[in-house]
Amino acid sequence: MLGNQKGYALPLTLIVILVLFILGTVVIGVTTAQVKESVIQQERVQAHYLAYYGADAVARWIMDNPEQIPLGDSLPVELDTGTFEVNVEQVSPNLLRITSTGTVNGRSQTVAVELTGTSAGAGIPLLDMAVFAIGHGGTNPAIALTGSSQIIGPAGTNATAENQVSLDWSTHIYGDLFIGPGGSGDVTVRQANHQSGNVDGSITPLFEERVYPGVNFPDFPEHLPQREDLLTPWTPSLYYEINADGRYDLIHNSSSRTLTFDLQGETRTIRVRELRIEGDVVLKNVEPDGKLLIYVDEIFNTSGNREINWNGDPSRLTVILADSVPFTANPYAQYKFCGNVITNHGNVSVGAGSSFKGNIISANGDVSVTGAGNVMDLIYAPNGHVRLENSGDMEGAIVANTFAGYGDVRLRFREPDPSILPFDIFDHSSGGGGTGKLTWGNPRWIGE
């Protein structure tokens, strides 16, 4: 009996040892797996924080340096625990997405943060496109190009309705095109060239509608001393000068005469019922703070090959036209103008090979650049129609309700300088004010 018990004890001991061995192996395996999973999870957490650190660092840098956006992919940044790489994408003119990927021992995590851009400060609206057509009301497209017209630079509109951007076969936009929030490029944009397309860049909806301020049309000065009419009959010196403020019924410098305004380093203010410029106009003694403001009540006209402050600084001359007074020239007059023109309801035309260097600001009128006319800097007509036609050319930026290019015209984007205006012309109460530069903020984190 005892012998049988000894015989059973050995196998039982072996079974117990085997079970303990198996259990030990399982425990070790489970423990090892748990440790490995814990390490993996720890590496994922580290990768996530690396990604977050990279995105946060870039976002903070952009908010501190709004004019230096590092678009595209960064090189890998190595830290003690791993690396991160950052991509900065401008989703729309006022939306940036910063995507960051952190990697630890081959394990990656990705996060993203979006920054919203707003126009900072007050006074100057955002001018970052060759043309922005507000596109409110009317039957015309917000943007229309015919013939072989080209926009060289970004373009945009708030419009979303069908064919609000109409592009004929040989026309082209060499840049991104932004349409109204929620719009569809297939609906809003009519591209006649179905083979290669008429838009060289992307077609992207805006993050939100743009609101451009109206024009704060200035009051005309009332208490200026009355002066006699200024004419330019022949004299031995052929020198004609205005050197003091005043109110005139007529200023008329006839052909081949040069009219000089002596600013004496100050602001010279002139109000005139009728201004006829048939000779050249020059400004002298403009330093340090000389400016010439000419307020026209009824008639402005120029003719012939006239140069109006042409070799001067555009910030020194501003012509303000009352009510519906247009800024025009006689047919075929090829003038050169350097300065600012501000109109209320009057239209502005630059044609017949004329050149305009400065800002055209129209509260409620239309602006046309025709017949090989050329404009540099800014056309701002938020309630009007702006058209370039028959080889009209512009370098700068346009803000209009609607815009059209007819024939073989070129609109080239170059950031204008509206700060050359002599006073605060933009109506902040209507919204849309800013410095013309975006500031970035309101970070919104997105887990990816």
Write the layout of secondary structure elements.
Elements: H1 2-64, E1 72-73, E2 77-78, E3 83-92, E4 95-104, E5 107-119, E6 131-133, E7 143-145, E8 150-152, E9 155-157, E10 165-167, E11 172-174, E12 177-179, H2 185-188, E13 189-191, E14 203-205, E15 230-231, E16 240-242, E17 246-253, E18 258-262, E19 267-277, E20 280-284, E21 291-302, E22 307-308, E23 317-321, E24 328-329, E25 336-343, E26 348-350, E27 355-362, E28 367-369, E29 374-389, E30 393-406, E31 410-413, E32 438-447
Parallel strand pairs: 6-9, 6-30, 7-10, 7-30, 8-11, 8-31, 9-12, 10-13, 12-14, 15-17, 16-18, 17-19, 18-20, 19-21, 21-23, 21-24, 22-25, 23-25, 25-27, 26-28, 27-29, 28-29, 29-30, 30-31
Antiparallel strand pairs: 1-3, 2-3, 3-4, 4-5, 5-32
Please characterize this protein's 3D structure:
The protein is mainly beta and 448 residues long. It has 2 domains: 2-120 and 440-447, Pantoate--beta-alanine Ligase, Chain: A,domain 2; 131-438, no CATH class. It is built from 2 helices and 32 strands. The chain has helices spanning 2-64, 185-188, and strands spanning 72-73, 77-78, 83-92, 95-104, 107-119, 131-133, 143-145, 150-152, 155-157, 165-167, 172-174, 177-179, 189-191, 203-205, 230-231, 240-242, 246-253, 258-262, 267-277, 280-284, 291-302, 307-308, 317-321, 328-329, 336-343, 348-350, 355-362, 367-369, 374-389, 393-406, 410-413, 438-447. The chain has a 23-stranded parallel β-sheet that branches. Strand 4 (95-104) and strand 5 (107-119) form a beta hairpin. The protein is elongated.
